[in-house]
Design brief:
Length: 412
Amino acid sequence: MRRSIVLNAMSSKFRRALIRPLVRRLHPYVPGEQPKIKGLIKLNTNENPYPPSPKVLATVKAAVDARLRLYPNPTAQPLREKLARLHRCKPENIIIGNGSDELLALAVRAFVEPQSTLAMTPLSAAFDSLSPSEGERAGVRGPFFQTNLRARVRGGEKSIVQYFEPSYSLYPVLADIHGAAKNTVPLHPDFGLPAIGQLKRGGQWDFRAALTFVTTPNAPGGRGYPTAELDLLCRAQQGVVVLDEAYVDFADEHALALALRHPHVLVARTFSKAYSLCFQRVGYFVGHPNLIAALDKIRDSYNVNGLGQIAALATLDNLAYYRANFRRIIATRQHLSRELTRLGFEVLPSQTNFILARPPKFPAEEWLKRLRARKILVRWFAHPSVREYLRITIGTPQEAAALVKAAESVLD
């Protein structure tokens, strides 16, 4: 018995040693729950409540034939060409990915050097751990001292993945996988972007960071950002900036022009949220040909499946159908916001296909449970900046009405 316990312990230790320490420490990205419960109204993953265009569905079904034995176009060239015409640029300005998430990961791999020490420690924690006497010995204070610390602890700005908080929770996971440094800077309490002057005075924001992610409109906040404001931030950055526009089709403005104006800016788009193709996983970047070529060098061969490419091509031929759906979703968003406000929710302004709302009477986590008991599934995050809120996907008008009825039931 004792021998068996010893051997099991040794075996466990051996298996653990096979895995890189960095990977053992990782906390993976947690996607929204995908339950299979009959009658559940699912408002937790920001999926489009409306199906793809009938023409898109017919085109994909017709493509399920003998060509399935063949490899797809390796660079998705026809899709790149059609997107280039839509965005008035060249195919060389576009790369297609297995969802925009793949391209976000490629950006980290292409533009960020892994750090050699303290790979999993946020920059702010490194600052806090330093005593005043160490700062005095360094001979500098404030932003200069922080820059000096970055160079000393991190090996320089080339190792930094930077983003605002809260934003897309995949960013820190991608940085951790790569062994990069993370620099997080809080948004304003209303999820607004700090002005350039504020970022300079604060000292933590790094204008030389290798890669900066900006989710615009913001997720999970839902706030949209003016293109002029984003332009100022891009002009101030010396490293690569990715403007992640996953929800831009529901917003008042978009910043695609910045990717064609600035050689260090990329704009990320996806066919998932607005175009009802989550199942197919198709996204793309728009940017300078030099950045696109660098990403293409490390892209997996045949990274986008053939049916996904066909579905995306057909989608671009049916944009009027989708734009009508955008208007319906925006109208439902406005109506739902008014109804929840009437019930005492604090609903933040949104330019996405979801809203962030602080519920009355009970904590948000309790509301999550009570709504689920009534077969309404929304999203709750434990992060301190948003733990008082629920993120609610905009469904159909009927689903919105069911949510309001369930909320009234909870309050009663």
